[in-house]
């Protein structure tokens, strides 16, 4: 059983938390360990405004089924579930029945977890939780004429995956059930950037790529980018998974830590605890 000392193993640490979707949950995790969460929710996740397109996609899948379904995010599974059950529970039941008949390909552990909540399975996991990992997992498979559903996210058309499926002569049925929207006002983001540049944080924990995009968009628009990158490289930068890590590295930011395999918030917190314990020993 953990002692009080063990539980508060982030005592005195100030950790930047740009998470939005589960901000309170994540902040509570680190605060219970003694840290001070410095919050700046950079993005919000909302249903796509093109609800008609999602409705048509659901009708198409329910009516004709799929051979394969590619799930890129857990959020996508949740949003499509929500869209389906808004009309009647029967619509969700029919969708789940159709999805159960398709081979499910998952990019990472999060969509797999959300599928299990629907009593569905992941039949094929990406070799790594990236688009490249999905493509590699499907590279040797004959998809000619297959009806392939693809759950996209945000406004990213994911051209590499779409081009790969087109080259495989698959019949592509793509749907993007949610978008990213700016949440924090620009002055809040600037205050957050200034806090980082002033060296007032011990760590920043990034949990999605759009957070980094928004942070640097504001920094560049306000001539802070040149100061932001070296400031981040002077503290602990935590990334929840490889996609987030790649986006940080593209900005010249060195990732200090990342969970080994389970790309969720609890493993991210444990990785930060291990990092700071090692630093203080």
UniProtKB/TrEMBL annotation:
Highest taxon listed in the record's lineage: Bacteria
One Pfam family it belongs to: HEM4
Entries under SUPFAM superfamilies matching the protein: HemD-like
Gene Ontology terms, MF aspect: uroporphyrinogen-III synthase activity
Source organism (scientific name): Salinisphaera shabanensis E1L3A
Gene Ontology annotations of biological process type: uroporphyrinogen III biosynthetic process
Domain Tetrapyrrole biosynthesis uroporphyrinogen III synthase: 26-266
Record EC number: 4.2.1.75
Name of the protein this chain belongs to: Transcriptional regulatory protein
Keywords: Lyase
């Amino acid at each position: 059983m953990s002692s009080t000392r063990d539980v508060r193993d982030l005592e005195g640490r100030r950790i930047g938390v740009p998470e939005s979707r589960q901000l309170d949950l994540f902040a509570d995790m680190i605060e219970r360990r003694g840290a001070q969460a410095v919050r700046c929710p950079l993005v919000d996740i909302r249903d796509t405004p093109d609800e008609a397109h999602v409705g048509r996609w659901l009708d198409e899948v329910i009516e004709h089924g799929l051979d394969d379904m590619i799930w890129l995010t857990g959020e996508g599974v949740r949003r499509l579930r929500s869209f389906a059950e808004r009309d009647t529970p029967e619509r969700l039941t029919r969708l789940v029945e159709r999805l159960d008949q398709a081979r499910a390909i998952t990019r990472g552990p999060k969509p797999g977890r959300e599928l299990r909540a629907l009593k569905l399975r992941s039949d094929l996991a990406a070799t790594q939780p990236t688009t490249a990992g999905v493509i590699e997992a499907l590279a040797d498979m004959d998809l000619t004429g297959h009806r392939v559903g693809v759950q996209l996210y945000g406004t990213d058309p994911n051209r590499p995956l779409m081009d790969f499926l087109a080259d495989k002569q698959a019949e592509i049925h793509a749907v993007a059930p949610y978008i990213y929207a700016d949440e924090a006002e620009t002055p809040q983001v600037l205050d957050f950037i200034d806090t980082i540049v002033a060296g007032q944080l011990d760590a920043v924990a990034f949990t999605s790529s759009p957070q980094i995009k928004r942070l640097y968009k504001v920094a560049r628009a306000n001539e802070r980018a040149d100061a932001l990158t070296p400031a981040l490289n002077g503290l602990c930068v935590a990334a929840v998974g490889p996609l987030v890590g790649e986006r940080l590295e593209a900005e010249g930011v060195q990732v200090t830590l990342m969970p080994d395999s389970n790309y969720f918030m609890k493993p991210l917190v444990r990785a930060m605890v291990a990092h700071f314990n090692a630093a203080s020993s």
